[in-house]
Design brief:
It contains 7 helices and no strands. By secondary structure, it is mainly α. Helix 2 crosses helix 7, helix 4 packs across helix 5 and helix 4 packs antiparallel against helix 7. The longest helix has 17 residues.
Length: 135
């Protein structure tokens, strides 16, 4: 188990964002665990979202940028199956200790995870201009 945890921490990379003595437990978890996982999994999240819109939002590529951004938000916030799939892709890269921390306050941390993921996808909305960009 320790080998897996060590591998995961090294594989994910360093803390992203600011960590200080005043940081809350959730903020520490966000910057030490969630952000590095989101960065590592970015290409996978893009591919998963493209697959999602190809199956569920056939006209997505004709949307305005504003409508694409709204679709990103709505897809992750309202489609529970899709949201749970994305959460699983993040949680799978937690160490056992991180998972123990996560289950203590999963509701708040889930909100942070999904908000960060939504912002990450929205900031890359230009990649969704043409369907074939990431295929």
């Amino acid at each position: 188990m320790a080998d897996r945890d060590t591998f995961l921490k090294e594989f994910r990379g360093e803390t992203l964002g600011t960590v200080s003595a005043q940081s809350s437990t959730d903020e520490l978890f966000q910057n030490q665990t969630i952000r590095p996982i989101l960065k590592l999994q970015n290409d996978l999240f893009l591919a998963v979202f493209i697959n999602y819109v190809n199956k569920n939002k056939a006209d997505f590529y004709s949307y305005t940028v504003e409508k694409k951004i709204q679709t990103i938000e709505n897809s992750i916030q309202k489609d529970i199956k899709f949201r749970n799939s994305l959460k699983g892709m993040i949680i799978a890269l937690f160490t056992v200790q991180e998972y123990d921390t996560y289950i203590q306050n999963s509701s708040s941390l889930n909100k942070r995870m999904m908000n960060l993921l939504v912002e990450r996808l929205k900031s890359q909305v230009q990649l969704f201009e043409v369907e074939s960009n990431l295929e």
